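Blinded run. Sample ID left blank on purpose so nobody reads anything into the name before looking at the predicted structure. Input follows.
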Amino acid sequence: MIIKEFHIRKYGPLSYKEPIKPQKFTIFYGENESGKTLTIEAILKLFLGKKEYKKKNTESMYQNINRISDFPIGYVSIKSVNGEFTIENGEFIEKSNISLEELKNILVVRNSDLSIEEDNRKEPEIYTKISEKLIGSKITEIENLRKKILERAIITEKGSLKDQKQAPYKTKYDTANTLLKEIQSLLPDLEKQDYFSLEEEISKTKEQIEQLEQTLVNVKLAKQKMIFTEITEHTVGLEGLVDEISNYEKYTIDKLNQLSTLYSQIKEKSDNREKVKEAIEKTEEILNSLQKQLEENSKTITKTREKSMIAKTLNNDIANYEQQNLEKPRLVKAKNLSLTLALLVILVGPLISIFMPNILYKSISISIALALGIIFLLRTFDYIRKLRTLDNIYSTILKHATTNLNSSFSNLENLKEEISKIINEYESALEKEKELNSKKLSTEERKKELDGTKNELNSEIDKIKNQINSLLKELSINSIEEMQEKLKKKSELENQYQSLISQIEAKIRVSGIREILSKNLRLTKNELTSLKNRIQELSNQINIHEDLAQLTELTKHNEDEIDKEIKIVREKLEKLQKQQSETQTRLRDIFKEAWSNSLYPEFTNQNTDVFFVSDILTLKETLERFVENMNKQMEDEITALEILREIEDEERKNISTLFQDSNLMKIFTELTDSRYINISYERNEGIGRITLTDKSGNIFTPEQLSAGTYDQLYFSIRLALAEHLFGKNSGEKAFFILDDPFVRYDKNRLEKQIKKLVDLSNQGWQFLYFTAKDEVVEIGEKTGIDIIKLDEVTNDKKETK
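Blinded prediction complete.
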């Protein structure tokens, strides 16, 4: 069976330009991502079919086969001894009679992995299935039959008993044996016991206990009846107290606190009112003092006002004088200059005229000199007049000041000091008047506020007094002391009330009927009547007919002593019953254990008090019968499993023919230069494994081999299995799809391996060798192998992962 032709028209990015017709040995060469892996995946999917490749078990078997989810468009043409057929959608499995496992583990090597199954534990299953197909072995049917027997059997595969969900065989068997041993040890004791005399003594002891218990009940009832009588008497006393206390209900601590608060408020506000009165008096004193100061200051103002006006006038005159006096130095200097020039001109003019040529010039020069002299003199007199005017002003100021101020002044400086003093005195008086008026105004406002506060306090005090009078009237008392007396009396009554309540509660608690007492702190008269009626009702319910004297006598009994006597008699009864029941307890436990494990379904009444020897003998026979039946069933099941195991071992020996009756050893010997002389398949304790023996007699497992030898071994096994599958006798060969299977070989071993594949291809085997290694191409070219370069036969699209 060989691949005659294939054409992948479309698979993801992969597309072949034309159909490919591989030879007996064809190398498909391409760099990574050139389409090698996708070509193998596409051929596999065409072999498997659309439905099969999507199944979960197929995906787990062919890892990453669905990297591209699309189904390839194309075909594979197969040629076999039975004819040719085309594969487009899963026809290969049906027409070739090859399983998915055989296709994966024999004909196709993906990802450079030559192993038979990645999981070594599944490898023997492949050999088993191939063996069954070739030689008609029934190992799988035997295994399934053994599993079904074990599922329903009462034993495990190793022959020991087991429990099932609905049938706990082991537990029941062990329990039955344990119970039989216990019964065997108990039977002698049962024969010795005499139950009748023991039962009579037990009966008398029970009667004694009943009499004591009845006496105890009567004592308790008598005491309870006496308690009810006392409660009734206390209730009558409470009714009187309730009436008396009701007269004092209005006298409460809150009312007393209210009165105390009101009296405290009156005292506080009265104290505040006195303080306000004192403040008013002080304010009035301050106002009187301010008024006197204002009157005195007013006189001062009147007295100093006229002098202040004169002083201001004089101050203005002095200011004017001093302004004009600033010109005096200049006037004095100008006067002296004018006088000097006048004298100079008058004296010099006549002298100049002497030198004049004639009288006219002399007259003119003298006239000019006289005129100029007169002008300068007039000028001098004007300056003198101004200076005298300044002196007159100075004298007038001093004279006026002396007259109006009633004081003589020698100079202006003294006058100016006096003027400043007069003006300051007047202004101080005015400032003081302003200050005094301000103080007076604020003081008057303060007095007004104090008067308002006083009036408010008077109003509040009156209001509180009214409240006190109203409260006193409401309480019908005249003072807070009387209120305190009322509360004291009320407290005494309440203490009496509480004492009676406590006594009633204590007696009710002793009687065990505490629920009849109201939870209210204060019982009303109606509630007291109800309580009294209820107590009477309970007292009537007590079923005891003794009169008061008899009841009193009964109450004298000590309950603890009666209890103690009952306890002693009970202990005696327990010893007797224990003597009787120890064996019975053992018997009851045996029967219950048998019944709970479904070993004695006849035991239906678990409350049975007495068991007889006949009962236990019947149970013994039932348990012995059950154990005997279980032993027989165990023997039968063990025998059946042993027979199946012997048949399975015989069948499994046939698997070794896959290794012995094939060219496996020949192929492997040639590949390894005859380093190994034997390959065998052994099965030990249900686990199959391959072993190899070298020339020195050393035995190896595949895991102990080098990587290259390991690959050679499993490639040889694949060839041997294929030889068996495709007809060792008919001579039909098969194809192999290889994805760089020898990547772990060095160049020499690789060349040797490829040459061996060439020899095998010449025998009829077909190899489609996909590689990215240049040395494989180099060896192929040297050996004359057909080489197809993927980049030349596929369209220009890169593989994507």
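Unblinding after everyone has recorded impressions. The two ends are 32 Å apart (CA to CA).
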